[in-house]
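Saturday, quiet lab. Running sequence design on the structure tokens for the scaffold JK sent over.
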């Protein structure tokens, strides 16, 4: 039982199930299909990232993980959108852009974890993701876009930034073999 409580995938499953149950039981919470699928995609990308590069086993390591916090932020925005907390509502394009950026950032963090929290402000992946996420949130705060810029245009720009995140994440050499935590790190 203690080993289950230390498992990161267990806590991810608990978080995902909690969010989906809230959609069924909470009055005023309308979890649409886009947000539910978005949460599932973010959870799946975190599991893929942990498979590519397991970073620690305990809960303390989980709370130090930038991949985990990116997933939490992704979940929170999708949940807050479902609670209608924002002045506007994220449409399908904005939800897709949000989920794609968060998911790709998580996977690229597994491939190239960078230098940790101390060097976060110098990370190109971080800034590309932050700009892309800010662009997707324009609609949630009812920002009026200039004439001719549609939500589809913003989605295209967001996907270009996602490509930049991938380029920054994949530009460093991938290690030949990641340490196997079950084999004593060898």
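Result came back. Writing it out in full:
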């Amino acid at each position: 039982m203690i080993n289950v409580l230390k498992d990161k995938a267990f806590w991810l499953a608990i978080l995902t199930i909690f969010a989906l149950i809230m959609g069924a039981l909470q009055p005023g919470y309308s979890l649409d299909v886009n947000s539910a699928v978005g949460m599932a995609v973010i959870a799946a990308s975190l599991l893929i990232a942990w498979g590519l590069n397991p970073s620690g086993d305990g809960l303390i390591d989980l709370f130090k993980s930038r991949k985990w916090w990116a997933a939490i932020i992704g979940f929170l925005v999708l949940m807050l959108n479902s609670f209608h907390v924002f002045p506007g509502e994220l449409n399908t394009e904005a939800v897709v852009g949000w989920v794609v950026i968060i998911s790709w950032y998580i996977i690229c963090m597994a491939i190239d974890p960078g230098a940790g929290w101390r060097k976060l402000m110098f990370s190109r992946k971080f800034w590309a993701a932050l700009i892309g996420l800010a662009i997707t949130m324009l609609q949630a705060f009812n920002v009026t876009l200039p004439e001719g810029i549609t939500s589809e245009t913003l989605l295209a720009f967001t996907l270009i930034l996602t490509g930049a995140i991938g380029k920054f994440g994949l530009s460093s050499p991938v290690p030949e073999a990641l340490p196997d935590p079950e084999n004593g790190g060898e």
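Notes for JK: Residues 33-52 form the longest helix (20 residues). Residues 180-186 have pLDDT under 50 and may be disordered. Ask whether to fix the surface positions before the next round.
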